[in-house]
Structures are given as structure tokens and as C-alpha cells.
């Protein structure tokens, strides 16, 4: 039976016979023995394997073993006399699947920069840092589904190809079946999308929210968890062209219920990861950012502060800090403002509500003051905004008016307006960039290092 190394390290017993498969991380030859460390990606720690000269074809095997080689080892577990590991494997048989030229292997026994590792994304999962990132990412994904499923939410698969721009930002990837060397033109000389595959202009989705709202009007509580795309030409540590979004939508829910669910969600996910990836989280705290564990405990153990946008502006105007972006009512809060509130003033996550309508999307519910909308953002220490949400506008006439204010043709959203004609209800939801969550969880600075294959301007390798 094949055994995962993580299970052996946690539960393996002396004299137990096991078989492991993985890749050599290090090799150390002595006179009568050779020590290798093997990883199968299941844990931060490697398993030490002892090869002695009684092993069949010992000398030939040793020559072929180098860092990066893949192999299977069968043998018996014994107590380890060395510090740091309770158990090790004494090999009885070894099968080498693939040799590796140690001199050319990009992952040498040294610390590589994350920038370098992005150039070898096909191999970087074998490093401690990226291995830990991917295990935490996996645990986060499991926690997302478990949280919503335990609450009776329906997971809905919203379309990747869409005809709508949810955010109204216009930063869209166009989907076409045209021969780009012979694009059909209409009488005005513009691209004739009636001749295209869908008979109209189509895009890669920037959000599944609007479609999730459709499903919430039939199933009450739903969530999406899937890839989204933004054609934003930004080469920064915060932007990706392809990323994953978590977007719950709840019928019969107001802004307060939205805030409560978002807070409960974050607490659940952080606790799940601490419980299931303790070694990886300790690694991040030691090697990447020494606030990782404190931030996680801060999320889990504290009630989030709650203030209105207007109160936030007042706090920022009165503080003794000079900001790069001046503060006044009506601005969109910048990262420096958000981080001041979360890191320095409240020293914990803070939920800011009721933003000016002019800086928010058309679908957010207009408040009675006619100046603000029932929106909320959760700001977290060391990262800024991590969740954005709102109560949605359920009143047909006001929604139609807001759509027109944004210079959007109501005919493009006829189906969205229809939801307000046939049994409309108060409803709310929020969105969370999955990679931002993993960044916050791990302390990794660059968002390109928390996704297996980052897609950025001028970069679509692998």
C-alpha cells in the first residue's frame, strides 16, 4: 500500500512496513550509508530514508539518485535517533522512475527568490514556500465549500462566457470566433458581432454575481466559486488577469445580515486552515511574515469593528497622518486609508458601510438619504479590502434609474430587471477574491505567488 508522507510523519509506527513515492530533495553519502530526504508534496517536512550497502544494486542506485529524481521506496519504519523527526524509513527496495541531472536542475539546495520561481512555475511546487502555499490554498477551498454547504447554500456554476459587464468597468476580455484576418464589418465600418458565434458581443466573466442573483431568486441562498477575468493592464503585486472569486447571494437578507455572514465566513475559514495546516502556517509565520499567526488569531477571536463611510472619513481627517491621497467625503478609499483604519486605528478587521452612490455599482441599494448606498467593505490588517458586498437594489424603478445613470442600456439587463417585476425580495451578497484571501492567510506579498499559474499582462506561460 502506498502511504502519504504526511500520514507517516503523524501516525507511522516503528516496524511498520510502508511504501512511499516522491521526489528526492537532498542526498548525503557516508561510508556505509546514504541518507536521502523524500517529499511527495503532502507536507512541509520530508521523510528521511536510509539506504545501506545491503540494498540490491546499491552503488548503481546511489549514482542515479540526485536532487529532483523520482522514486518509490519500500521499507520499514524505525525510530529516528536524530532531532527534529520521530521516525525514518530504512529502505529495502528502491525503484527509480525518473533520473534528474542535478547540475542542470533549477531547484538547487539554496533559497530561491519568488521572482525566479515564477519563471519555473512547472517546478516551483516542489519548494517549501510554494508547496505550503498550495496546501493552504487547498484547505481554504475546502473550507469555503464546507462553510456554505453546512449552512444549506446551493453551489451554482455561473457562466464563464457572458454578455454582461457586472462591474461596469469595461476591462473585459472579448470572446470571438472570428477569423481575425477577416473580421466582418457593418455599414458603419464597425465589427459586426451579429455574425459572431453568439450573435452578439461576448466576454469572459468579471463576476458571477448577477447570475447568482438569478439563482437566489429561486433557491434563496446560493454561492459561486470559480474563475473570473479582468483585462486590466496592471503589472502590480495586487493584480491578476485570471483569478477565482467567491460570491454568495442571499434572498430575504439585508445589509446587516450580509455583514454577519461575511464575518462568520472569514472566522470559519481561518480556523479551518489553522486546524488543518498548522505546520505550513507556522512556516509562513517564521519565514514569510511574523504577523501571520497573530493576524489569523485576530480574525478568529475578535468581533469586527463596524463604522459608516462617513465616520471613516471623519476619523481619517482627524488623524495625525499625512496621506498620499487627500481625504474628503466622496473619495474612494485608497489602500493607505484602509490599512490605517484596520492596522493602526482599530487594530483588527473593520467593516465600512454606506458608501457614496457615485463610487459604487448600479446594483447597490439606494439609501433613504439618496446620497449613499447599502454597501459594505471588510478591511483587514496588512492587506486592506478583502471583502466587498452590498444589499442589492430590489425596487424596479430605482434600479432602472440607476442603470440609466451609469449610461448602461436597460435592454442589456432586461432579465435582471425582470427579477424585480416577478416576486422581488430584499437580497444581499458579497464577493471575495480567493487569491487575496490566500495572500492574507499566508503573508505572501505578491498575488502571483498564491496561484499555480499566474496570468498577467504579456505573460501566459504554462
Automatic annotation (TrEMBL):
Keywords, in A-Z order: Aminoacyl-tRNA synthetase, ATP-binding, Cytoplasm, Ligase, Nucleotide-binding, Protein biosynthesis
Pfam families in the record: tRNA-synt_2, tRNA_anti-codon
Enzymatic class: ligase
Catalytic reaction(s) noted: tRNA(Asn) + L-asparagine + ATP = L-asparaginyl-tRNA(Asn) + AMP + diphosphate + H(+)
Main location: cytoplasm
GO molecular function annotation: asparagine-tRNA ligase activity; ATP binding; nucleic acid binding
PROSITE patterns per the UniProt record, alphabetical: AA_TRNA_LIGASE_II
BP GO terms, sorted: asparaginyl-tRNA aminoacylation
GO cellular component, as recorded: cytoplasm
SUPFAM superfamilies hit by this protein: Class II aaRS and biotin synthetases, Nucleic acid-binding proteins
Residue stretches making up the Aminoacyl-transfer RNA synthetases class-II family profile domain: 134-452
E.C. no: 6.1.1.22
Keyword rRNA-binding: no
Localisation: Cytoplasm
HAMAP family on file: Asn_tRNA_synth (MF_00534)
NCBIfam families named among the record's database cross-references: asnS, PRK03932.1
Family membership: Belongs to the class-II aminoacyl-tRNA synthetase family.
Quaternary context: Homodimer.
Protein name per Swiss-Prot or TrEMBL: Asparagine--tRNA ligase
Gene expressing this chain: asnS
